[in-house]
Amino acid sequence: MLDTQTDAARPVHAPQDHPAIPKAKIGILLANLGTPDNYDYWSMRRYLNEFLSDRRVIDYSPWKWQPLLQLIILTKRPFTSGAAYKSIWNEDKGESPLMTITREQCTAMAKTLQERHGDRVMVDFCMRYGNPSTRSKVREMVRAGCTRILFFPLYPHYAGATSATANDQFFRALMEETWQPAARTVEPYFNDPRYIEALAKSVEDTYGEVENRPEILVVSYHGMPQRYLMQGDPYHCQCQKTTRLLKERLGWEDTEITTTFQSVFGPEEWLKPYTVDEVARLASEEGKKRIAVMAPAFSADCIETLEEINEEIRESFEEAGGEEFTYIPCLNSNPAHIEALSAIVEENLRGWTD
User: Fold this and answer.
1) What single DSSP character describes residue 256?
2) Is residue 144 part of a domain?
3) Number of domains in the chain
4) pTM of the full structure
5) Crossing angle of helices 335-348 and 97-117, rounded to 10°
6) Are residues 82 and 204 in the same domain?
7) Residue 1 pLDDT > 70, yes or no?
8) Alpha helices (runs of H) in the chain, residue ranges in sequence order
9) Contacts for 91 with CB less than 8 Å, ≥ 6 apart
């Protein structure tokens, strides 16, 4: 039975015992990867178990993978991952930076979209793994009267392990609703001119602030097994196109920018070159003393950028002889990024808000 709300009312011609129905709204649900609730062992174990049990992420047969995961990986990895999260944790808010930034993005986009559409739209966010869960936020939107929901995975590039699994979870949540809303999903925006412009401005702003211009920009994307590319996943090609469009927008030569892949996991060969190895090679073999690194595949800074890039990858570069390492933050809640994302939402709402 629908909850009675301040804007809920019984339909005009309905009988007296008919439940009140909220005023119809359009829900805009932003989605990011996820975050543990804390960095203690059990919080990390719950989060990693959900993440690493996803067949979109690890597609090995469960009868082979689950014993390894439950008996070995999840007895050790929560400690190391917890220590990494602890090093970047937002202690003031008691949450990970990804949670803080995603909330800021949601708040900024809600302000922009509600200025244009008023209370016709409801903007919120969810996480694929951990909290707030996709299921809980879909339920909230339906109870609030959202008869249409636009689901927006905040991944510029499509990958089965990111965009697809987020969409999977969204549709699973819809399956549980008695009154199922109409639904749309936002396609990847890796080549959207507004996204490329926001990236370019972030590079130009950072280069304008450093004393010595970096000799090369390393554009590091989250990796995936090479096998996934051969099976038809378009992620690798979309990443390469983003780098090319960024280079063209900046007006740079090929020698000033390069594409790499990070976060390798497991025994398989992943997309190459690996960022951690390439920055060391640039320092030791090519004599690059100054580099900058950015991660366009992440819409918000997270463990892979704040800890992996800014600590592990930086250390690899410096140990190989590099001297000046500049990390260019993700677009986060940068106004140009919010405007780009809001414009993408507007285009996907056509026909619903006209």
Assistant:
1) G
2) no
3) 2
4) 0.93
5) 60
6) no
7) no
8) 41-52, 62-68, 74-88, 97-117, 134-143, 165-175, 193-209, 226-230, 235-250, 275-284, 314-319, 335-348
9) none
- Give me 106's structure tokens: 């949601």
CB 103 within 8 A of CB 35: no
* Token code pair at residue 131: 């909290």
Report the greatest alpha carbon distance in the chain: 80
Does 84 lie in the same domain as 199?
A: no
> What CATH number is attached to the domain comprising 232?
3.40.50.1400
pLDDT in tens, 117-170: 999 999 999 999 999 999 999 999 999 999 999 999 999 999 999 999 999 999
3-state secondary structure 281-334: HHHHCCCCCEEEEECCCCCCCCHHHHHHHHHHHHHHHHHCCCCEEEEECCCCCC
- What is the span of the domain harbouring residue 282? 193-328
CB 188 within 8 A of CB 156: yes
Considering the domain boundaries, does residue 286 fall inside one?
Answer: yes
Is position 354 within any domain?
no
Q: What is the pLDDT of residues 299-331, one digit of tens each?
A: 999 999 999 999 999 999 999 999 999 999 999
- Each residue's pLDDT tens digit, 331-348: 999 999 999 999 999 999
